[in-house]
Records
---
Amino acid sequence: MFFAQWAHPRENATLIALGSPHRAQARVARPHALTAAHIVDAGAVMQGVAIGANVSRPGRLRTRRWDLSALSRARRPINVLMRTSLVSSLASPRIIDDYLGLVDPAWSVHDVRARVVSLKRETSDATSLYLRPNENWRGFRAGQFVKLCATIAGVRHTRCFSLSSAPEDRGHLRFTIKAVPGGRVSGWVGAGARVGDVVELSQAMGQFVLPDPLPPKLLFISGGSGITPVLSMIRHLEAIAYEGSVACLHYARREVVCGHELVLLAHQYPALRLAVVLTGNSGENGNRRLRLSPAQLDAFAPEWADCDAFVCGPSGLIAAATSIWQKGGATDRLRVEHFAPVATSIAHGSAGAAGRLVFAKSRLETAGRGGVSLLDQAEAAGLRPSSGCRMGICRTCTCRKISGTVRNQRTGEVSSQDNELIQLCVNSPLSDVTLDL
């Protein structure tokens, strides 16, 4: 097992590279801006990655169809009967799920419900939530996400989370969720969820998935909790015995989400090259040499321009990758997934007054605030519009804008078109705005 570490002499940062010894020599010889290379044994890997203890080795995976419990298989023909108009009329004015829930809260005729079967602390602020879905779950592709709805203190909250398990993992779904300050659902997963709790799920969504057929070279770049869909894809590639080139470059501050699992995958999956950059508290104003750069890519994966690349993480990482691939003329090979909420104040304009905000259906009117999402302002006005990821991915909060000018906080695009559909979570008002809410 190979472990190489480059530590910058003045910054709290480390680049950890993992792979086979014959690949190691090329990277030790080309550390670029990162210096002081040395090799230690595999035991130091477990100490060097700075992760919580008691993480078990992931088992060897085999390709399987989704495994349903015997109870779920038995309920399928019953569900067919329950969907008939006769049964629906007998249950009226309630719905049949109200009665099924008395027998088993995870039983539903139409909805995907899942029971919490296990919880595992991955780092000081990240927890893996293991769920067994009911028979309505249709499976997923590695890299996809779902909308997870949990009832917390009597209120339903929905957020989007990527799966960190592979489709071949038998019998359960895994979501590895990092607690966000003030986050209702992520906080509940870390501190309030219990084995036996039941949540609701959407079917899997998203296009951040591996192409079919698979290309000969794959490059994954992730930051923070953006490792979760990447981990799902790498586990899937190992499960199907993909023999092409797989390179993974991950950035983290101090603790690496599922870091022990990544180390073990690098050890047991010959196709995988893994490097972890520990940036400490470098932040936005820290040492630029610790950020994604062409020099780092050339040192770790010289063939990066020829790879199909997948980047998932905070906006700074996404912006850096997009710029590099644009300059290299290879954007057709780049796929990105944002993994952080859009900031409520934006760089495209100044926050402040932005006219009147009118909610037509609710007959409410309030002062609009520029630089603050329409979703936040609707909730501040006492409304509860549907929402999910709150970062412009799932489109749950899509609403008709009757009139007014808004700015998309992700793209900077300004639109004044009447009667258009917009996402409330990533748009802020620039004028008087009327919404169909």
Note: The first helix runs from residue 21 to 28.
---
Amino acid sequence: MIEFVRAVAWPSVVLIGLYLFYPHVDTILNSFARRADQIDGIKLGSLEINVKASNLPTASKRLAVAISALDKDKIQTLISLSSEINYCGLAGEPSSDDFSRSRQAMLWGIENAALITLVRSAETDNCKAPLTAKLTALGEEAREFIFALIGAQVQGAAVTK
């Protein structure tokens, strides 16, 4: 019984505090939300980052949806692609090789986001089961957006001592 009272006590105090101070907390949060677009810098120790929202590139809804479907590895793969690149050994059934399977899954994930198209290519002596990844127009737009975003972040970053 004592354990139950201990377990319920602190959440109860927090809930009562939120109930009593809700108007003040609401005012503070709304004030912060209204001013969030005016924040142009964050300082954490010796790292100071200055980025104005107006300097950041904006993405269309379609582009935002496509990019948000990508994890870090897929974004790295996307930005490393030229307009077209061939991958040997990836057009066939998933290989027993973990690298090939993960590379296939990564490319299919980028294709599912409509950023590349994957096309089976003609085999050569040096390349069996080749797969060609071609950037779509949306893929080109995504690469340009990501590079612009990185550029804005780098331009706005400053390290102070």
Note: Strands lie at 41-44, 47-50, 84-87, 116-120, 131-135, 157-159.
---
Amino acid sequence: MSSTSTAATTIKVAATLAFALTLSNARCQALPEGWRASGATPKEYKMTRTAQARYKGEFGASIVHESGSGQGFGTIMQAVNAASFRGQRVALRAWIRTNDAESAQMWLRIDGSSQVISMDNMDDRPIKGTMPWKEYEIVMSVPESATHLAFGVFLSGKGSLAFDEVRIGVAPASARLTTIYDHTNKPLEGPFTPMKNVLEAPSNMSLEK
């Protein structure tokens, strides 16, 4: 993929994560309970819970590009109520492994009632190529105006990834923030689309169910 097309895909991923995730079960086989498939081009990806993607325990989850141009992305995600995180810093962590990945990234989006408040989708530190298991982290502040958090792992372009042992919880006030997009100084343009199917609390973070 050329540098021009890579930049265009990066912009598309950021905008789609922020405003218009397309829910789809195409090519999905037994997703982990509480998680769902989405993305700009989810039909191009096989997204599943599988023992072949485990880091710890019995199961992990994988995203594999199977067909199409690879100009979009597929993600496995969930959205949760922000009530227990408001007024605090939150850390999202997951163990991720890649194989010939054009760009594998973890993401966390914080929404208010009428706008995306902030987001980190690892645009400044994507995982590329073939990389062994490693734990990655996102740290963001959750304001009192937050209504819910959405998070997950996505594959942009071709290749494959596996992820496991996802954790999300309150981080120390001293934890370094990784926020990339913020509505006060670097907003994302586009119409706001509220998340659907919001859970009351994070579910099945180990991906075992």
Note: The first strand starts at residue 28 and ends at 29.
